[in-house]
User: What shape does this take?
Amino acid sequence: MSQPFDCFVIFAEMRTGSNFLEANLNAFDGLTCHGEAFNPHFIGYPNTDHILDVTLEERDLNPAVLLDRIRSGTPEGLGGFRYFHDHDPRVLEPLLENPRVAKIVLTRNPVDSYVSKKIAQATGQWKLTNVKRRKDAQARFDAAEFEAHLAALQDFQVTLLRALQTSGQTAFYVAYEDLQDLAVMNGLAQWLGIPARLDSLNTALKRQNPQPAAEKVENYAEMSASLARLDRFNLSRTPNFEPRRGPVVPTYVAAQETPLLYMPIRSGPERAVRHWLAALDGVKPGKLSDKFTQGSLRGWKRDRPGHRSFTVIRHPLARAHDAFCSKILTTEKGSFPGIRKVLRRAHSFPIPEGEPGADYDVNAHREAFTAWLSWVRANLNGQTALRVDGHWATQAQCLEGMAEFTLPDMIVREEEMEAYLPALALQVGHQNPPDPVAVPNSAPFSLAEIYDNQIEALGREAYQRDYVMFGFDDWA
Assistant: This one.
């Protein structure tokens, strides 16, 4: 049977037992682990100057040289190395994208790894091979430092998980406690495609601090209290079941001469901003630069040093009302007739078959809009068969999509456009920028005519994420 992998990588962190795992892997015939091959401070180990004849200087100049050397193999068999979250980031993507690189993920309780690291820093002893030479010390728990430690670990684990999911790969997961299990180590060798098996584990390395945490941490009571307030199960998070969104670059709009780029969030004050951008240079809105591709937008940015970009966010209720009136309630050009039809048929939406007529009064509008808010909540939670369109997706998710390509320099609130947009134009050299003028969208009734506590509550339920992320208060 052919070898399933070209090399392996151990994704781990300091004080997770990676030295012990490496020692056991090196005990197998056919496996060679080259230490921390891409540690920015040394190559492999603190006292070595090369790996497979690649020097530290050569690796720093082009890490792909060392990666290719390890992947090409040696007479000893399958090669690999340990990779921590702060190692050379240039090799992470090639590692994650290549299914011929075996991924081993080593984890440990983050409190234990943090305490172990603090003790090692205090004693200067990072490995223990002789118990008689063990140095003793207590760690001092620092809450802010630990939370930063925890966030870095979790962020890296999420990065690994998503890369594996989106590329259809799987990893071999090893917990710190598994390192003493001979069967697990032999199972790892089998997964790597190595026929050799061990009869016993490496005994050279010793566990340095086997005592309970209460004896290892000098301010243990303070640590316990601090950890108790951490939301271990992330219960306080705002659930998000929305699909990921792309940057939607073709919707971006630039002024004709003034180096300003508008990155709109749909169902926001787009018409008002477009009219303002056009007024900056005395042209009609149809003469603005738009329909960008990522390539043409890069060119626009290169040609305009000092350019600025912005987006405008709108109160979630006002935005939901605009989306409802312009995309669902009407049948005019630009609306969504297919979604409208499904809402009427499958969800019994109280909207007329055609355009609203004389019998569509303010009470009918209020009933229809409350039904819309309830449906949007279900739609954003992944409970409907219809797509989550950008016109009613959360603004937080739209901004995350923008970040895949470029972020706006400034996020302006709609009610603050009059102050901030002219100030932004002044920053890019416009001497006398006009004030933006509101351009209302057509609606049979305004939000003010139907607004009450029930509508506010429904809006908060549907757009909890935006209310929390941007600090929106009640609409009224």
In short: The chain has a mean pLDDT of 91. The two ends are 70 Å apart (CA to CA). DSSP finds 19 helices and eleven strands in the chain.
